[in-house]
Design goal:
Strand order of the largest sheet: 3-2-1-4-5
CATH superfamily of the largest domain: Nucleotide-binding domain of ferredoxin-NADP reductase (FNR) module
Oligomer: single chain
Radius of gyration: 18 Å
Pfam family, one: DmmA-like_N
Order of helices and strands: EHEEHEHEEEEEE
CATH topology of the largest domain: Rossmann fold
Keywords: 2Fe-2S, Flavoprotein, Iron, Iron-sulfur, Metal-binding, Oxidoreductase
InterPro entries: DmmA-like_C, DmmA-like_N, FNR_nucleotide-bd
CATH architecture of the largest domain: 3-Layer(aba) Sandwich
Structural class: alpha/beta
Number of strands: 10
Shape: elongated
Length: 189
Amino acid sequence: MTPTHDRSSGSPPSLPRYQALRICEAARQHVVVVQADALTKIAAFIATLPLEPDLSTLLVQGDTSATARGASFFPTYDALERHLLATLDRSAIGLRLYVCGDEAFIWRIRRLACEAGMLPEEISAELVAAPRAVYCVHCSASHVYDALPEVECIGCGINLGVRQHFSERVGAYLGVCADPDRPYLEDRA
């Protein structure tokens, strides 16, 4: 995914930028993957999709009590992932993938789609919430956190300063030890 860059002009170039989803008229098949809480935000976009089920697929992760025309709902990310991989495996050239959700969700889906053979240019994304993945450079763990300047790594316990650098390869912001003289939030004797 090469998201359109809409962040402030002074922001580092590695930060991902997003825009509202728009249908790709040249696409032969459309797959939309969305978190349930983002359904209302992209309702107008969903209404522009072709009605034929073999041309449009809507996959929703989360609240299965939500409703959307022709949607398949998945209570867990793992169930969504299995279904998305099967959908991508059956698809032909000309597929366009649209993703909407929080930043951690977007990049997890993007990584999965690229591993399945999609090109970044075939993936569009719209951001709706702040949770994001942070990659700890000390233990190589990635975890989802609120958009805070410092977080505690769940993997190694180090207090991480979240850099304004996003790695598309790992789909996360880089986190480094915030204070080398006091790497842990609590004293460990």
